[in-house]
Design brief:
The complex is a heterodimer of chains A (111) and B (111). Chain A has strands spanning 4-7, 10-13, 19-25, 31-37, 44-51, 54-57, 64-66, 76-78, 87-94, 101-102, 106-110. By secondary structure, chain A is mainly β. Chain A is globular and about 40 Å long. Chain B has strands at residues 4-7, 10-14, 19-25, 32-38, 45-51, 56-59, 62-67, 72-77, 86-93, 99-101, 105-110. In chain B, strands 2, 4, 5, 9, 10 and 11 form a six-stranded mixed β-sheet that branches. In chain B, strands 1-3-8-7-6 form a five-stranded antiparallel β-sheet, with no helix packed on it. The A-B interface holds A 31, 39-43, 45, 48, 50, 58, 90, 94, 98-105 and B 32, 34, 38, 40, 42-46, 49, 87, 89, 93, 97-99, 101, 103-104, 106.
Chain lengths: 111, 111
């Protein structure tokens, strides 16, 4: 079934660790996005990509990086996690028609 | 810059009453306006959208209206039910092709 998948769904790690949040979509979409969201609050765009080898920073300053080597895969990496990174991270993708489909999210807690 | 303002931030109604959420946008070139519903602990999901060549769109108990001259659009939910309780986000496509989200409205429907 065409969908967006995120792993892990929950992650608890210590300060200073390097982590990668995975996002894959089987919908064939060119555009992909990463959002940071505290529960029930605003969606903050942190990175986006309009295709392979294309990545841009979003509106929220972030210490994370992304890569887009394959159309279906858009991982987010934090080189050194801090307690301020504790949040939910949502991946999304969209076709040319602009509707965005969201993944289930990764809840990150940094101790 | 591109901006979407959403009001109110919280809304409480009695079951069976109507609920209205309003958004204004800044980019006059915006031509796509989706609404997302996010239930507690779930991913945002599209519930209705409208394009700039249409003034109103309806789907059962929900409707969206668009006033391009005034640059605002609204979500109307009639005959509200407890399962309508959620956070609702409006959005507008910006000049860069990114979706710009509003701040969100927490709707509580009291039985």
């Amino acid at each position: 079934e065409a969908d967006i998948y995120q792993t892990p769904r929950y992650l608890v790690i210590g300060t200073g660790k390097k982590i990668t949040l995975e996002c894959s979509q089987t919908m064939g979409h060119d555009k992909m996005y990463w959002y940071q969201q505290d529960p029930g609050m605003e969606l903050h765009l942190i990175h986006y990509s309009y295709g392979v080898n294309s990545t841009e920073k979003g509106d929220l300053s972030s210490e994370s990086t992304v890569s887009r080597i394959r159309t279906e895969h858009f991982p987010l990496t934090l080189e050194s996690a801090r307690p301020s990174h504790t949040s939910q991270y949502l991946c999304a993708s969209s076709p040319v028609g602009n509707e965005q489909f969201f993944g289930p999210g990764t809840r990150l807690t940094v101790l | 810059g591109e901006n979407v303002e959403q009001h109110p931030s919280t809304l409480s109604v009695q079951e069976g009453d109507s609920a209205v959420i309003k958004c204004t946008y800044s980019d006059s070139a915006s031509n796509y306006f989706p609404w997302y519903k996010q239930e507690l602990g779930k991913r945002p999901q599209l519930i209705i959208d409208i394009r700039s060549n249409v003034g109103e769109k309806k789907d059962q108990r929900i409707a969206v209206t668009l006033n391009k001259t005034a640059k605002h659009f609204s979500l109307h939910i009639t005959e509200t039910q407890p399962e309508d309780s959620a956070v609702y986000f409006c959005a507008a496509i910006g000049g860069t092709g990114k979706l710009i989200f509003g701040q969100g409205t927490t709707l509580q429907v009291k039985p």
